[in-house]
Amino acid sequence: MIESIDERVRRRLRELRLEQGLTLQQVSERALIDISMLSRLESGKRRLALDHIPRLAAALGVSADDLLGGAPASDPRVRGEPITRDGLTMWPLTNRAAGGLRTFKIRITNRRRRPPPRTELRVHDGHDWMYVLDGRMRLILGEQDLIIEPGEAVEFSTLTPHWFGAINGPVELIAVFGAHGERSHLHE
Questions:
Q1: Which residues contact residue 73 at a Cβ distance below 8 angstroms, ignoring those fewer than 6 apart?
Q2: Which residue of 38, 135, 143, 148 has the fewest C-beta atoms within 10 A of its own C-beta?
Q3: 27 with 17: CB under 8 angstroms?
């Protein structure tokens, strides 16, 4: 539930007052606000007026911005579910951003060892960036057939026909896809 500005100011008023060890009486005297009104403001039984904010902030020795206390920070954790498809399991490491880049941890199973015929290699707009963490990855990129070792990174235009898979055991990597690459690797 999102906290309203009124609720936030009431909460911050009480938090700041208690942090400083001040009584309602002390704050009411400093802010030139009747103690019963201050109590009702803090408890939500009376609505805050704009002219209360500077006086309450000054009484608490903080700025009006501190009293208004910006909206609570959103949860920074990425909570996307892993996607499994075609011998790949992909865990999102970034939240979805319209038109932006997305980062994934990918596990390639040993099941994904045979590339499709070269005539069926995927092509799409964008770029792919991959960094192999563990295992050996096979990357077919146009006419090239490459082995990518742990600690190696690759970057390529996805307009070049491409496929990637495992050589002789699972592979773990970090990949960065643009919107086109994400659709191609996750949804087609």
A1: none
A2: 143
A3: yes
Instruction: Examine residue 58 and state whether it is found in any structural domain, yes or no.
Output: yes
Q: Is the pLDDT of residue 137 over 80?
A: yes
Please write down the long-range contacts of 101-104, taking CB distance under 8 Å and 24 or more positions apart: 101/176, 101/177, 101/178, 102/176, 102/177, 102/179, 102/182, 103/174, 103/175, 103/176, 104/174, 104/175, 104/176, 104/177
Give the other-Cβ count within 10 Å of 51's Cβ: 9
Q: What is the pLDDT confidence band of residue 170, given thresholds at 50, 70 and 90?
A: very high
* Domain tally, the chain: 2
CATH of the domain at 10: 1.10.260.40
Cβ atoms within 10 Å, residue 90: 21
